[in-house]
Amino acid sequence: MDEDQIIDELRKQGIDLVSSVPCDRAKGLFFRLPEKFRHIGLTREEDGVGISAGAYLAGARPAIALQSSGLGNMLNAILSLTVTFGLPLPILASWRGCEGEKIPAQIPFNRPLPAILSAAGIACREVSGPDAPQEIGEAVAAAYKNRAPQVILLRPECLTETGCSAPFQPASTRPFSLCYERNWRPPTMTRYDAIQAITGSVQDEVLVANIGVPSKELYTARDRPENFYMLGSYTQASAIGLGIATARPDKKVIVIDGDGSLLGSAILPVIAAAGPKNLTIACLDNGVFGSTGNQPRPGQDTADLALMALGAGFVHSTTVHEPGELEDALASRKSDGPAFIHARIRPGNSDVPNIPLSPSQIRERFMAALL
User: Fold this and answer.
1) What are φ and ψ of residue 156, in 5° steps?
2) CA-CA distance, 41 to 116, in Å (whole number)?
3) Cβ-based neighbours of 85, under 8 Å, separated by 6 or more
4) Domains of the chain by start residue, with CATH
5) Among 218, 180, 189, 162, which residue's Cα sits nearest to residue 285?
6) How many whole angstroms separate alpha carbon 243 and alpha carbon 48?
7) Which residue would you say has higher pLDDT here, 99 or 217?
8) For residue range 215-273, what is the model confidence (pLDDT) as tens digits?
């Protein structure tokens, strides 16, 4: 089975967005995916879970392609996001660690992988032989029919390389000029103040809220069907926002993310490379892990999120300290994003109740509002 057969089967199943991390056992496939689909390249596999979730919620039909070892990085995101909200997720994985594997580090996780997935309740199909393309199609269809993750393990013997595209050649010159002056002031806002400033500024924008207290505060400040409340999957808020913004370029998307979440993710350069003009990341930075008891996070006095966003390639990045500054930053967003707003806030959680909506209720009303 060559990469054209795999691509044809994905197309037959209506796949219209693929995110991927390459594997050298299927080089041709990973060169061809960006040519044949809307494509988002990843540096961490779990970000594909969030991107796919957001894309599906916004009407796309996504899939992920990767090396099977990357599934180890994805398990929590799959279970706490894909499974919890009942979302389809076909994952095409080049299976490493099988008989004949020459790299010892590939064996301990990958060889028992079907049993690991089974223990987690994640459907898995091993593919090889002459019926491999049909089996891929059936597995993708099952993921969407059952609204569940479905891992498709491609055994090495079933993959036939037909050649790669020309090697990537970076630009010979990459002009960049930056004059940056940091002027941090003592923050005056709480996170709830910042969220109220955001909700008071939006009209028909889509809002994605980070896990834990931020989602509960957003619900209390202004519940609306266009809000997606996260209930788990740490580090995936901005990835979900990227998926929504990619699938619905006509919609403005604002992600209410946190400093700890973004520092634990590799999503900023992925967003900048994808370049969605309709996406704004509002990083509410309190210097602590707010939802777990306000424990100080690493780099609370040294890590500059606004500068990191510029370094990642964001078109616009600014720091704010007060509600009025945050409102002005939202109002001045341009149409050549993505944009990053670093809102420095005080630690502390407001006394807000849990969200009285089930995951399926959040999903259904959000999708109805977008579609």
Assistant:
1) -55, -35
2) 26
3) 53, 231, 359, 360, 362, 363
4) 3-158 (3.40.50.970), 191-370 (3.40.50.970)
5) 189
6) 9
7) 217
8) 999 999 999 999 999 998 999 999 999 999 999 999 999 999 999 999 999 999 999 99
Nearest Cα neighbor of 284 from 189, 143, 148 is 189
CA distances from 21 to 29, 79, 190, 368 (A): 11, 20, 38, 31
Asked whether 244 and 253 are in contact (CB, 8 A), the reply is yes
Name which of 268-277, 285-294, 350-359 the model is least confident about: 285-294
Token representation of residue 231: 């209930």
- Which of 83, 15, 56, 18 has the alpha carbon at shortest distance from 228? 56
What angle do helix axes 3-12 and 132-146 make, rounded to 10 degrees? 30
Q: Rounded to whole angstroms, how far apart are CA atoms 224 and 164? A: 47
Enter the pTM of the model: 0.95
Bridge-based pairing of strands 288-289 and 295-296 is antiparallel
Burial class of residue 69 (count of CB atoms within 10 Å of its CB; 0-12, 13-18, 19+): buried
pLDDT in tens, 119-164: 999 999 999 888 999 999 999 999 999 999 999 999 988 888 766 6
